[in-house]
Amino acid sequence: MQVLPIPSGATTKESPSLGKLIVLTGPSGVGKGTLMRSLLQRHPEFYYSVSATTRSPRPGETNGKNYYFISRKEFEQLVAQGEFLEWAEFAGNYYGTPREAVLNHIQSGKLVVLEIELEGARQIRNSFPSALSIFILPPSFSELEKRIRGRGQDSQEAIARRLRRAEEEINAANEFDTQIINDDFDTAVNQIETFLFKETTV
Length: 202
Prior knowledge:
By secondary structure, the chain is of the alpha/beta class. It contains seven helices and nine strands. The strands form two sheets. It has a five-stranded parallel β-sheet, with helices on both faces. A four-stranded mixed β-sheet has the order 4-3-6-5. The longest helix is centred in the last third of the chain and has 16 residues, at 156-171. The radius of gyration is 16 Å and the shape is globular.
C-alpha cells in the first residue's frame, strides 16, 4: 500500500465533545463490512461515515451508501483541498474518509463509525488519539483465503496481493484497543457491542 501524505493544514486535532470516533479495521475478506451493517441495524443512532474510493462498484453496491465512487482526478482534487480525514492507496485504488461530516457529527455528540484500512487507522490515531479502535481477525488465515477466493470478484494477481497485505495487517492487530475474531457472526457482533458500550459509558 502506498500512503499518500496529507496536505499541510489538512489534519484536524480532536476537540472536546460528547461524541466519539470508532474505527473498525481488518484484512480484506474478514467480514468487517457485514459486521458493520449488522451493528448499524441494531443501532441506527450511530453515524456511519461513507468512504470515497476510486475503485469500481461491485455488484449490489450503491453510490453514496456503500461508497462515494469517484475518479482518481476527483479524489486527488479533494486531497489537495484537505477534504479527507485520512486517505491511502490500497490494491491500486484510493480510499478516503470525508472530513467535514465526521467532525460535525462528533461535535454534535454522535458515535461516528469508520470502516477503514490499516494505514488510515494509523492516521486517525494521530489526529484522534482517543478514538476507539477495533481489529477484526479471521478464525484462521486459511479461512480468510477461502473467503477472498469465494467472492469470485478478483483476479489471481489481486487475490495474491490481498493475501500478502492481510498478513501484514494481521501482524498489526495488537496496535488496536481490542481484537475480535469473526468466527461465529452473532458472537462477534455482541463482542463489538460489549466493547463499545463499556468504553463509551465510562
